[in-house]
Design brief:
four-stranded antiparallel sheet; 6 strands
């Protein structure tokens, strides 16, 4: 689930909307060994929150890089 809060300000007028949304977040990634006990990590995730209440659907991409080390 996603909790999405939208706020729109014009002068002294404020419009605010908060809703729960169901969603999905498929992710794919790879690990590449770079040493005896370390790996480089790369992944991409697509987040999609379905329409909820009077609110529209929302979507975004996340790109991740990392380094892991086994002790």
């Amino acid at each position: 689930t996603y909790w999405i809060s939208k706020r729109f300000d014009i002068g002294i007028t404020v419009s605010e909307e908060e809703n729960w949304h169901f969603g999905m977040a498929p992710e794919v990634g790879v690990t590449v060994p770079v040493g005896w006990d370390s790996h480089l990590l790369a992944a991409v995730r697509y987040n999609y929150a379905f329409k909820g209440g009077a609110s529209t659907a929302h979507a975004y991409w996340a790109f991740m890089l990392g380094l892991s080390y086994l002790d």
